[in-house]
Every structure is written in C-alpha cells, then in structure tokens.
Amino acid sequence: MKPIASLICLSILVIVGSTSLADAATPDGKHKLVIIAGKPSHPPRQHEFHAGSVLLANCLKDVPGLVVDVQFNGWVSDEKTLDDADAVAIYADGGAGNPAIQKDHLETLSKLAKKGVGIAFMHYGVEIPAAKGGPEFQKWIGGYYEDKYSCNPMWDPHFDSFPEHPITRGVHPFHDRDEWYINMRWAEGFSSEKAAVGADGTKFWPILVDKPSDTVRKGPYVAPRGPYPHIVAASGKPEAMMWAVERPDGGRGFGFTGGHSHDNWKNDDQRKVILNAMVWLAKVEVPANGVESKVTDEELNQNLDKKR
C-alpha cells in the first residue's frame, strides 16, 4: 500500500544501560538493536511505525547492556550503522513494498543473518512475496505471511498461556482487537501447534497462540475480504501470531503479526512481550520478570505521523 505522507530520513540513538557483555558487537561492549520504522501509511493511529518504534525504544532505556538505534522512512540512513548491529527489527509495510526487498536490502540482510545477527519483522512487515523473499524469511524467522494463503482478519484473540521462553517472562494473559494475521507459510517442520527443530537445526517456538472461531475464519478479512476455503476448512486449528527461532548461524529471529493499532501499545502485556523479544533478539538477558515499562497517554500520542 502506498504511503500517504513522507518523512525526512532521520535516526534516533537511544543509549541504554551500562553492562558490558563479552560477545557484544559495539566497541563500548553493548549489544546493539537497530529498529527500522516504515514510511507513513494508513489512516491516523494505524501503522504508526515511527511513533511505535520510538515508544518501544524509549521503553528499553533501562535495560543494561543495550543500545537502540531507531531509523525511519523504511531503511537506515547510513548502512554503516548495521556494521556493529546484533539485531535488526523492521516494523513497516510489507508485500511488494517490504523494505527487505527494496534495492539490495535482501542481500544486505542475508549477509547480516549469516553473521548471526538477529532479524525480526512486525505486523505488515511479516508479509513478503513467496518468490522474492519468502525463502529468506522462512530461514531468518521461520515463516511469513503469503498473499491469499495467509489472511488478516480484525479480531480479538485471547492469549491465555505461553511457552517457557525468555520472550514470555513476566507476560500475563492479555487480549486486544487488532489485525492479527493467521495461517503463516511456515518453513518445513514448523507449525502453530508446538515447538520444533527444523531439518537444518533451527529451533522454533510459537509464542502467542489462539484458536480463531469459525466466524473469524469465515471473514471478512481486511484484504482481500475472503473467505478463503482453506482458512474456513481449518476450523479449530490453533494459530501462532507471534513466533521465535534460533538459527544454526547463531542468530535469532521473531515474527509478530499484531501492531496494526497504535493504541494497543498501551497494553502492558503486549508491549512487554515485544520488548522482551527485542532484548532476546539482541542476545541480552531478559529480566526475570520481563522488561518493565509504563506508557502514558501523552507518550502514546508523541511522534504520530501527519496523515491526511
């Protein structure tokens, strides 16, 4: 979907904590997370990639040993910032416009992944064309949203239980209405139903899982509106809307299909599961009770895109 506004490409560097870790990439001994916020799109308070990325980065300011570099407008302003990155998380529009497949970005991300850099995609960013980026997404994060195979209903899943994993530390059951995507195109051997190890040794965990009702499966979906017969036929099947992997190259990855509605970042547990995931992605120890943070309405309303 085409953006309806534009931003000057800027970056914000948020320095957090002071703990030195032996395998850190940066010269000062910190682990570095680069968050790439996509270009503006959608109506106000939807796909607020700029505001959401800054909000999440600010919530990470007290995590020891982590530095967060937030970049805007769909890519980094200078690729040198990726040289010492431990992790890259992209929160942006996807499909044919996914930042991962513009220019030579797929090659750049492939080189980072081979170095063991963590890779993550959020909301629309998990969608990629099957023939251009699909195999890479399966390798980097375990799966992706495939047009007309996956679907994007607006619904209210209830996340009532979680696997034992650093990403779920301190996360309590929660729910919110959002455009939660379902029926991902998983890499071979993976599914929403259980943790698994792929043929190449990749470890996979479903993190946020619920069973859509038959009404949700029958649509309408956001686009195309459906219903798709194969989605309807999967009645009663659990669906993972967030998942994580550890790759044989030493890197980690996660996909998160929520994040359409900016106001849902006010949900403490949705925010915590993402903050935990970003810390884990960068190979920093997740606190025993997860990353604690508070967000006020004033903070939520900062940095919103100017949209018509």
Structure description:
There is one protein chain. The protein is of the alpha/beta class and 308 residues long. It has a single domain, classed as 3-Layer(aba) Sandwich (Rossmann fold). The chain has 7 helices and 15 strands. Helix 1 (49-59) links the parallel strand 2 and strand 3. The protein is globular and about 55 Å long. The model is unreliable at 1-22 (pLDDT under 50).
CATH superfamily: Class I glutamine amidotransferase (GATase) domain
Shape: globular
Number of distinct beta strands: 15
Low-pLDDT residue spans: 1-22
Tell me the name of the CATH class. Alpha Beta
Mean pLDDT: 93
The N- and C-terminal alpha carbons lie at a distance of: 15 Å
- The assembly state of the depicted protein chains is single chain
Percent in helix: 10-25%
Largest sheet: 9 strands, mixed
Q: How many domains make up the coordinates? A: 1
Strand portion, in percent?
Answer: 15-25%
